[in-house]
Amino acid sequence: MKRKLFLIAGLAGLLTLSSCKKFLEEKSQSDVIPKTATDFRELLIGSGYMTNSEPLNFLYFMDDDVDFFLEYANDPSNVVGSYDAQVNYLWYTWQPKLADINGVGVLIAEDPSATAYAQYYTKILGCNAVLENIDKSIGSQQEKDRVKAEALAVRAMYYFRLANVYGEPYNYNPKSLCIPLKVTSGIVSTPLPQATVGEVYDLVVHDLLEASSLMDPLQIMRRDYHINQPAIHILLSRVYLFMEKWKESVAEANKVFEEGGKILDMTTLATESGTWLTYNNAEVEWLFGGNTQPNQSTYVPAARFLSTYDSNDARYRVGFSLQTNTNVQLVSKLPTGLDLAQTLRSSEALLNRAEANVQLGELGSALKDLNDLRRKRIEGYADEVITDKVTLLQAVRDERRKEFAYEGFRWFDLRRYGMPEIQHRYQHDLGESVLQYKLTKNDAMYVLPFPTSVILKNSALKQNPSGQMPDRVGQ
């Protein structure tokens, strides 16, 4: 199945070079012309779905779960002064040039099509092409509805991610400028203006609601690498959580379990069982995309974060591996190589619901969800009693951090939590001073700069303040 995914992705990539429109025309010179709903569903895998890549895999360098400085390692030379540490220095220290060059001065975005920004829009283009043509395909209405729902849901996820990279947090300033919205596959000759954060979220919600209305009446299909009904509701629950629409977030999370969502008992897993982020995990509703932390064998989890795990927490036992040469725990939970590495799973629905219920004052319901999850994660766990709203909210958020560590959640969550101050330690080389770099509260870098090459391509795009800051200096 994975081989088929990569073959379809490669075919779609080649065809996209000659434009989706030409590919979809009846008179195309290609031997492969999508005509049936099944054809379009397979085309969507390559042209709309992310396969084994993740353009935003740099985000984990910027949050508070990673530490380049190995003061507690037997051999800090593994990281300090290493090429990998230097290359990613700009991300790790929140430098304004991070969108254009890497830490050793090599241009990383001279070609706008190579940027994470453009890679997401390329996939959006693929979704748009399918949406424009699926109604004219051969097949039953149910088949067409499924393909349309998938394209809408996947496009919504891409816009949601882009908005949380290049726009201000929704709960901070929904009227601020965000990213351009493009809902057609045709080439636009004029500059594309930016929509506001609120307008992007409106499209995301609209697409997800339409996707769920199309797909909910259909049979639920699992473990076929396509997004399904529970996964769509997980996404909706997440988006509503970010919008602080608590009741709507709870309602969408409830639908996940009404549609058969399960919670895996991780206490029964063997160490490094390889079943956590795969379809072998009963709670995984959708498996997709590439690794969110490509260098998990190099970069060290922050010691303060690791200390938050209970000693009997299966997520720690299964998700981290002690390196005998350095005596340091490194992340091992993520798949490697060409394996798909990201999931939408029902444990998120549980935590979304718990957090939203705390905000609604439904502390009993929130505490039940928290205890139910912990019982499935921590061996010998005894239910806690928490009656204070502030304490319970923090407990739920701490659980979310541990549950989804290094899976691309933390940076987005920090933004909606109020953009708190973060500090990173960095040592340029052994023997040099250990410098402290600070991301201040509400720092402009919580909204990343657009690559210069992208702005040159679209003159209507206004650079974010983070791209106009002076270099950040360590103390």
Automatic annotation (TrEMBL):
GO cellular component: cell outer membrane
Lineage of the species this protein comes from: Bacteria, Pseudomonadati, Bacteroidota, Chitinophagia, Chitinophagales
Family stated for the protein in its record: Belongs to the SusD family.
Gene3D superfamilies named in the record: 1.25.40.390
Keyword annotations of the record: Cell outer membrane, Membrane, Signal
Predominant location category: membrane
Transmembrane segments: none
Protein name: RagB/SusD domain protein
Biological source species: Chitinophaga pinensis (strain ATCC 43595 / DSM 2588 / LMG 13176 / NBRC 15968 / NCIMB 11800 / UQM 2034)
Pfam families documented for this protein: SusD-like_3, SusD_RagB
Superkingdom: Bacteria
